Amino acid sequence: MATLRPFPAVMPPGTKANLVAQPPYDVVNRQEAAALAAGNAIGFMRVARAEIELPESVDAYDDCVYEKALENYQRLCREVPLTADAPPSFYVYSLVMNGHRQTGVAAAASVDDYDAEIIKKHEKTRQTKEDDRTRHIMTLRSQTGPVFLTYRDSAAIDEIVARTMGATPLFDFVADDGVGHTGWRVAAADTDALGQAFTDIPSLYIADGHHRAASASRARASLKKANPNHTGEEEYNGFLTVTFPASQLHILPYNRVVFDLNGLTPQSLLDAAGKAFDVSKADSASPDSPGTVHLYVEKEWWRLSYKGDASALSPVDRLDVSLLQDLLLAPILGIDDPRTSKRIDFVGGIRGTAELEARVDSGEAKVALSMYPTTIEQLMDIADDNDIMPPKSTWFEPKLRDGLFCHDI
Asked: Is it true that the peptide bond before 87 is cis, omega within 30 degrees of 0?
């Protein structure tokens, strides 16, 4: 049984939402973050990635970065202004990309549900990134970017969401990347019914935002320990989420580039791959079916099709990213731990296969691997098995914007 609660969202006025809202902190590097903030004094990147306002010599995890983030958040609260909504509410948040719409409910999810695995995970987190977002939350005393959750569809939730979308929106804009963002406040008359409808959902699943969720749990543990009058009703017992029905989600591939051939020639790499895969020339850059990876080397695309019976494998082992790791990256290219290896990089599907070709053709990388997208059904099945997917298995688009809803704790 899932628990989602209304919360007093800290929001910009609708007329300024397009200026405040910016992409999540972790989909851009420092230079890209600075470019997004350039010329926009109220862009939320100044809160999420405050190091962009400091000299490049300053480490992104230096104490002064978190102090600058707090300073900037407080400034936006005064100047935009960002204001806390009253009374606590649910919100509907809809995104449209290339004609595809996905619509979710913004709410405070239960940290208890996260700790008890009612909110299910499919990825491991990295300590450095957890530490960063925990410090960010604790310094600002606010969760400033939502965790992206999903669930198996519910007609009762759909009905309330559809009714809410008939009201006047709180914000409605098209961002520079062409993605439309619209938000509504759920009517008070529907608040209890919506919360009750979510209690009929047995599990929620983290689609994106594992580090934010883990950091919210760590922050709650610290604040609970420091509060002798803890009741369980404090705002820090919830964390900022937007929760979407699984049928609406769009997953793109998460591709790979490798910087060397581990002492192999291109031909010996293909020969070695032939032990586990049928290798042939590819007529496109992207695979058109699961069990297939396309490999780019020396300006040519090759099709690698798994020879075995994938259906005989466990849900996690039959993932294309698992087959690639277990049968090519580790045994042939020597990349045993892609989480820590400096010899591999991951490229979100939104950047396209031209990005893969460019990185190999420039000499930066030696080989690129174009993946077939993981499905949302695979993600949920693996999470239900309490299993963990390989790193960088999914890339969700469109991305939720930071700055539209914040949750002060």
From this structure: yes
Contact 354, 334 (CB under 8 A): no
- Integer Cα distance of 94 and 183 in angstroms: 6
Residue type, 374: T
Residue position matching structure tokens 């490049």: 56
Q: Is the pLDDT of residue 344 over 90?
A: yes
Distance from C-alpha of 44 to C-alpha of 73, rounded to nearest angstrom:
8
The predicted pLDDT at position 137 comes to 98
Task: Map tokens 């397009």 to a residue.
Answer: 18
Binned at pLDDT 50, 70 and 90, residue 126 comes out as confident
What's the rounded Cα separation, in Å, for the pair 267 and 187?
63
- pLDDT band, very low/low/confident/very high, at 124 (cuts 50, 70, 90): confident
Return the sign of the alpha-carbon dihedral for residues 159, 162, 163, 169.
positive
What is the third-level CATH fold of 254-372?
Answer: 3.30.1760
Taking a C-beta distance cutoff of 8 angstroms, is the pair 238, 109 a contact? yes
CA atoms within 13 Å, Cβ hemisphere of 244:
23
Query: Which residue ranges make up each domain of the chain?
Result: 4-250+397-408, 254-372
pLDDT of the residue at 1: 85
362: its two tokens? 């420039």
Contact by Cβ (8 Å): 52, 34:
yes
Whether the Cβ atoms of residue 94 and residue 171 lie closer than 8 Å to each other: no
Whole-angstrom CA distances from 232 to 15, 180, 215, 227, 228 are 36, 37, 18, 11, 12
Q: Which pLDDT tens digit goes with each residue over 192-234?
A: 999 999 999 999 999 999 999 999 999 999 999 999 999 999 9
> Cα–Cα distance between 129 and 143 in angstroms, integer?
15
Taking the C-alpha atoms of residue 361 and residue 366, their distance in angstroms, rounded to an integer, is 8
Q: What is the mean pLDDT of the chain?
A: 96
The CB density around residue 146, as the number of other CB atoms within 10 Å, is: 27
**Close Cβ partners of 228 (under 8 Å, ≥ 6 residues apart):** none
Spatial contact of 237 and 200, defined as CB atoms under 8 Å apart: no
What is the band of 92 on the pLDDT scale with cuts at 50, 70, 90?
very high
**Prior bond of 398 cis (ω within 30°):** yes
Position 390 scores a pLDDT of 87
